[in-house]
Write a structure and sequence with these properties.
Elements lengths: L3 E4 L18 H12 L8 E4 L6 H4 L5 H13 L19 H22 L2 E4 L20 H12 L4 E5 L6 H6 L6 E8 L21 E6 L5 H19 L3 E5 L17 H18 L4 E4 L10 H12 L12 H11 L27 H13 L8
Helix pairs in contact: 1-9, 1-10, 4-5, 7-8, 7-11, 8-9
InterPro entries: AcuC, HDACs, His_deacetylse_dom, His_deacetylse_dom_sf, Ureohydrolase_dom_sf
Protein name: Acetoin utilization protein AcuC
Organism: Streptacidiphilus jiangxiensis
């Protein structure tokens, strides 16, 4: 039986930019409550663990010492440091900004260590803060836990790591950290930079180690069929060719049609399908070593808890059927915490189907244009046919 380590600490909800900020920590609490309501935390093979916060030496695997000191100073004084992206509209200053960010990073790094040492899976749905740069906060992200987890894997001796990012926003911070490192293949599927922050992630951005940064820039309005078509036209081929020892994936739920900050039209069912595909890729090509992280997601009641509960269930090899009703106890918790009405089922009611890109290219279709642009930019570097 594959072991799944679910990293959770109630203190993760102290990563809180304050009232009115889109990244409401209630999304984390409601996710863990839904995981517990389904009994996933007590299933065979599931271990719920809490790791300590990442220390300065660990944070220093990715972040500049001056930046870490700047975060600590903002935490201590409350004085903004906009030159470092701290105390801005996106990243307001708060007293726990260092401690909470380091705690999130600690869970992802511990997950990476466990997967490398013992195999199996690890999940930190509080993680996936993929925009943070070595010397600057960006896009609601202070410390880049995804990059730190990968850096720790490399430090432990990993020679090939694949990072798959399906957040609606380009995984720019992780890409930047490993831009020149051919040991890490970063793959990001995201809304086109013409229409969404951070305005990077063009298909021509292929890395200093050419071909090891992969960007699939999808047009605004892309739905399930196009999103899944793009994923299956790019990701499995590259993973199979690269032969990673570990897959690290970021599962931002903000691709969803109801997300208020972006413009894709993806269902919960398609998100679940991609999670299942990544699990299969890890089993087939990475000796079943898989670290799965959360990310963005700002429909904090209707989407995020269901999406990441599916992630935990799939990681544990105990998937929840999409038509399953959400537990009444959880719906009551949603009402108590948010005064909102919780979703009734674990599905949006979509089939999550797609047509294989290799069965026929439509030159007038903008999704197919995006797929072909990425293939042309990257596939030759890996000896793959367009």
């Amino acid at each position: 039986m594959t072991v799944t380590r679910l990293f959770w600490d109630d203190a993760l909800t102290t990563y809180d930019f304050g009232p009115g900020h889109p990244m409401d920590p209630v999304r984390l609490r409601l996710t863990m409550d839904l995981v517990r309501a389904f009994g996933l935390d007590a299933r065979p093979g599931v271990r719920v663990l809490a790791a300590p916060a990442a220390g300065e030496s660990t944070l220093g695997l990715v972040h500049e010492p001056g930046y870490i000191a700047a975060v600590e100073a903002v935490a201590a004084t409350g004085i903004p440091n906009p030159a470092r992206g701290l105390g801005t509209e996106d990243n307001p200053a708060f007293a726990a900004i260092h401690a909470a960010s380091a705690l999130i990073a600690g869970q992802s790094v511990a997950g990476a260590e466990a997967v490398w040492a013992e195999g199996g899976h690890a999940v930190n749905f509080a993680g996936g803060l993929h925009h943070a740069m070595p010397g600057q906060a960006s896009g609601f992200c202070v410390y880049n836990d995804a990059a730190l987890a990968i850096a720790r894997l490399l430090e432990l001796g990993a020679e090939r790591v694949v990072y798959v990012d399906v957040d609606v926003h380009h995984g720019d911070g992780v890409e930047k950290v490993f831009w020149n490192d051919p040991r890490v293949l970063t793959i990001s599927l995201h809304e086109h930079p013409r229409t969404l922050f951070p305005q990077t992630g063009w298909p021509e951005e292929t890395g200093g180690a050419a071909g090891y940064a992969v960007n699939v820039a999808l047009p605004a309005g892309t739905g399930d069929a196009g999103w899944l078509r793009a994923f299956h036209a790019i990701v499995p081929q590259l993973v199979a060719e690269f032969r990673p020892q570990v897959i690290v994936s970021q599962h931002g739920a903000d691709t969803h049609i109801e997300d208020p900050l972006a413009h894709l039209a993806i269902s919960l069912d398609a998100q679940r399908a991609v999670m299942a595909s990544i699990r299969e890729l890890a089993a087939e090509h990475a000796d079943d070593r898989w670290l799965a992280l959360g990310g963005g997601g700002y429909a904090v009641v209707d989407v995020v808890p269901r999406s990441w509960t599916h992630l935990v269930a799939l990681s544990a090899g105990q998937p929840i059927a999409p038509e399953t009703e959400t537990p009444e106890s959880w719906r009551a918790e949603v009402r108590a915490l948010t005064r909102a009405t919780a979703p009734q089922r674990m599905t949006d009611g979509f089939a999550a189907t797609w047509k294989d890109f290799d069965a026929g290219y439509d030159p007038a279709d903008r999704v197919d244009q995006a797929i072909l642009a990425t293939r042309k930019a990257v596939f030759p570097h890996h000896g793959l046919l367009l």
